[in-house]
């Protein structure tokens, strides 16, 4: 989803499996030139992911504004700054989602709700797939809801 940070639009990944909110040093270098002045120390230096070991260089607090026509929502998560992480944008961890009341709904139109106001939906971005992608037909069926109802499988 796209959020506003320091008066600029930035991608935010909501990851229900993440144990830490993270941001890559390269992303900060490219989008927030003065970020090093805001860097705070962190106790943990080494993190592990599916792609290997990652080193942290500190933490940073960034105010995130989620824009909505019925009122904006402001969050102030602490992000672990990782050296050489392969992420474009910021990643919000599981605990912060629970703390702020963020629920992800996997309906035909994927959306999230923050807090208890069910009227305040935030629709998730669906990334475009190129026409040459062999999975495009399957993805279109998924988007149309053809895979939304599980069917029984005969395993005999």
CATH topology: Cathepsin D, subunit A, domain 1
Beta strands, count: 12
Helix content: 10-25%
Question: What ranges have pLDDT less than 50 throughout 5 or more consecutive residues?
Answer: 125-134, 147-156
Shape call: globular
Q: What CATH architecture label applies? A: Beta Barrel
Radius of gyration: 18 Å
Number of domains: 1
* Text of the CATH class: Mainly Beta
Structural class: alpha+beta
Q: Largest sheet, described in full?
A: 7 strands, mixed
**SSE string, helix = H, strand = E?**
EEEHEEEEEEHEEEH
Overall pLDDT score: 72
Corresponding CATH superfamily: Acid Proteases
| Beta fraction | 25-35%
Distance between the termini: 43 Å
Instruction: Give me the number of helical elements.
Output: 3
The main sheet orders its strands as 1-2-9-3-8-5-4
Describe this protein's structure:
The protein has 156 residues and is α+β, with helices and mostly antiparallel strands. The protein has one domain (2-123): Cathepsin D, subunit A, domain 1 (Beta Barrel), CATH 2.40.70.10. It is built from three helices and twelve strands. A seven-stranded mixed β-sheet has the order 1-2-9-3-8-5-4. Strands 10-11-12 form a three-stranded antiparallel β-sheet. The chain has a two-stranded antiparallel ribbon with strand order 6-7. Strand 1 and strand 2 (8-14) form a beta hairpin. The longest helix has 8 residues, at 136-143. The protein starts with a strand and ends in a 13-residue tail after the last helix.
